[in-house]
Design a protein that fits this description.
Blueprint: H1 26-34, H2 40-45, H3 48-55, H4 59-73, H5 80-86, E1 89-90, H6 95-100, E2 105-106, E3 109-113, H7 120-132, E4 138-143, H8 150-163, H9 171-176, E5 178-182, H10 186-197, E6 204-210, H11 213-216, H12 222-243, E7 247-251, H13 265-269, E8 274-275
Parallel strand pairs: 3-7, 3-8, 4-5, 4-6, 6-7
Antiparallel strand pairs: 1-2
Length: 276
Amino acid sequence: PGMAEGWLDSPQPPGQADLAILGFSDAVLQRFKRGGVRTVQQLVVTHPLDVMDKCCLSWNTVCQAQAKAAERVAPEARTALAILVEAVRFKTQIPALDRLLHGGLPCAVTEVVGPAGAGKTQLCFTSAAAATRAGVGEVVWIDSEGAFRPERLREVIQASRAAMGLDPAGFWEQLQRVRVVVGESLEDVHSHVQTVHNMTVGSVVLCIVDSVAAVARVVGEVAARQSQLNMLASRLKAVASRHGVPVLVTNQIHGGPNSTDAALGHVWHHAVNVRL
């Protein structure tokens, strides 16, 4: 199952924009196109000597063009104070966990690790219930294990509304704010995450991937798996950064039932921002 048609708005990323936005003359643009350099991203990542050779342009012209392109795609610098003041924490409504996280889930990639039955998916249900209560934005739940149960989410939402003295009938609207897509491979998950990244800012309040290990472990070649995990981690962080929302992923353990070591190796180990 894919995303509902018309649900997403996919603005063109700055790097994929046509070179015309940089204000070059028609003659220079034609040379870029004849050389196969058509987007801002292509101009930034291509070695200047290659651009000179392919597009028949001078060294100074290429260097000036790449500088313009870099300014277009590079994020603006911010002060540490501004980042601290604007830092948002998403309350899970589990007091002990929110205290441990200094206020709640950060707008970053948080990984929940544990054996089967430890409550990883339950934390996802609880977080989804909390995220949809305000009635603004949607939760995107990428389900790779077949563990999503709408009746369980309904129970969690009803219990939380009752505890807060809210109208029990409001759970219907909250359920409508949780979008579930199925990922049967790492490629599927990456595609769904890319789609979430391209959503209109403000339309998503939480992204859940349950779980990463379920699809990563079926990739036989280690090098290929690590490469795909690295790309996925990068895109998940981009989602958190662009939308200013938490990304919650679940993972399994390896090394036996008494182990607390996260699965998926060193590349993934260093990719997440917070590990529970």
